Amino acid sequence: MNTDPSVNGNRGLATRAVHTGQPRARPGAPVVAPIVRSSTFHWSGPGDGIDLLYSRYGNNPNQRSVAAKIAALEGTEDALALASGMAAISMTLLAATRTGDHIVASRHLYGATHALLAHELPRRGVTTTFVDPGDPAAWRAATTPATRVVLIELPTNPTLRVFDIGPARDAARAANAILAADMTFATPVNLRAAEHGVDAILHSATKYLGGHSDLIAGAVAGSAELIHGVTKMMKLYGGSIDPQAAWLLERGMRTLPARMERHNRTALALAQWFTGVEGVTQVIHPGLPSHPDHECATRMLDGYGGMLSIVLDGGGEAADAFCANLALAAAAPSLGGVETLVSQPRHTSHVDLSPAEREALGIPDGFVRISVGLEDLEDLKADFAQAVGAASGALVRG
Ligand SMILES: *Cc1c(COP(=O)(O)O)cnc(C)c1O
Q1: 311-332 tens-digit pLDDT
Q2: 81 Cβ closer than 6 Å to some ligand 1 atom
Q3: How far is the CA of 151 from the centre of ligand 1 (A)?
Q4: Which of 92, 97, 340, 364 could be cross-linked to 373 through a Cys-Cys bond (beta carbons 3.0 to 4.6 Å apart)?
Q5: Alpha carbon of 125 to ligand 1 centroid (Å)
């Protein structure tokens, strides 16, 4: 496997994305690694001079090559691919905590992560204090001598907030805790979290890393020691990735830098275009000067990402009509694929909140989240323009 420093060391991100983890070039060798479906591998004992290979251990050739690619892109010592984003998050938190320990986490988290911290980990004696990530003093104030993990996510879903990592990192360091960050929306193309002091970089690889809406996977990147601990949990709880999914993920990651470049460009152009569309009262994208974190996002990120949100005049009814009238973009949850998807948080991630609670979070009815795909910009504009028109028409007709 191509993990040696001469391939990775000084080479750029796009080169690493293509080459790391691929078979060594030699006559007759496949250019693309095959899928190895075997669950087990010949091994007669330690005298064989290799580790025992077994696919639940995460050391099947496909699992290892995709892990090498993740580590190469994040710039970390090691990495691990798992069965889902939630497997990556839960195994990392289980590895880092024991009964009596404490976590400080951002209030702006993926729904299942929030549920894990608020309802599941307390059953194991691990408690969490949620803080407003926009208040730099809140992190330090929430830590206790028992704090083992500080957890952030950025950009956040669905309001795309981009908070400075500094205060969370400093609080983690002062508490002797690890800083964990769900970087699903940013990807290593837009932000190398390790350079900002993140110890455990988490991904739902289902989204941009895979990039084609055809697999469920997760990833964690960090030091060899951290990955050793997470691997131990994965072996016990059984959350390893299937070799087929690992191969698909590795295939998707080869084009990650190329895809992100286009996601970044098209989403920004669409955000700018939406600001002039009648019937759209608000456009939320970190690349717009109107976004509350525009300055911070510009400083920290290499690209603003492929996500954007709009608020339609006419509330939930208008948003329903907008989604129903799209011809090219599809209404579906999830994000990060080649195809443009739209979803309404009031029907999905924030369904359990009242309209007033959602409004307080910056998610009024009429809010539509858009995962901008790789289609032609002009085709997307045309589709969104006719859908906004149809939504306004539906309201007028009553
Ligand atoms: C989707 C998502 C997850 C969960 O990932 P799965 O692959 O569905 O388990 C976690 N965090 C964020 C930010 C996500 O978007």
Answers
A1: 999 999 999 999 999 999 999 9
A2: no
A3: 15
A4: 340
A5: 24
